[in-house]
Amino acid sequence: MPSIPDINTPLVIAAEKDFLVVYKPPLMHSAPQKNSTGKNILEWCVQEYPEIMDLPGRRAGEGGLIHRLDYETQGLLLLARSRSGMETLFSQQVEGKFQKEYNALAAESKLLLPGFPDVKPGNSTVNEIKSAFRPYGPGRKTVRPVCVETSSTERQKEQYITEIPESYPVSDSGVFSFRLRIVRGFRHQIRSHLAWLGMPILNDRLYGGCAHGKGLLALRAFLIAFNDPSSGKKLRYEIPCLDLEEI
Questions:
Q1: Contact 9/34 with Cβ under 8 angstroms?
Q2: Which of 66, 95, 110, 172 is deepest in the core (most CB within 10 A)?
Q3: 11-97+224-241: which CATH architecture?
């Protein structure tokens, strides 16, 4: 498992014929932003791997970027280097074969944020949170879960699932480490789901997280798994989970 010498510096984890796996630091965009001149991981990658921008991408100007991470979130990103690789990886996303796992450090909060459903999904021992989402607040900068009637097959398709295979305390002050898994993701999905659970992520100012240390959002995409576009072999890339001292 490769280590991250400096969480504030991008790092190439794997460079293969069809794809690139990179570590994106916190406070760095995944791709160029409209009306923003801030650093982004796509432009950083293109300096060494210019073929990434020869690909059409899902959005204009995103080249071979397969998925995004929030500006504040750190962790593993996948980029295609060939057209066949891009098409195969996008297909795997649609088919649910592209797995992403996150690590979050969170603490219980009694603060009840407006806009969340009255019924909570459980507590720190719950193993799955499921909902649709709606934009919320000024500038629609956050999202809120929307409970969906399970009797409707079409409505069920609108739901996004956050699995929680593991959670355990990491400090005497009530901080828990969560391992979280998603296949199909929505903007701020994990952040909103944990806040709904009553366990907002540390330093998550948008969702009521407790302040800690350096003030970095305690959310890391530490694992991605997918099939190699050329061989079909199952691949898995992983970096260490977060330490309280890092954030």
A1: no
A2: 66
A3: 2-Layer Sandwich (3.30)
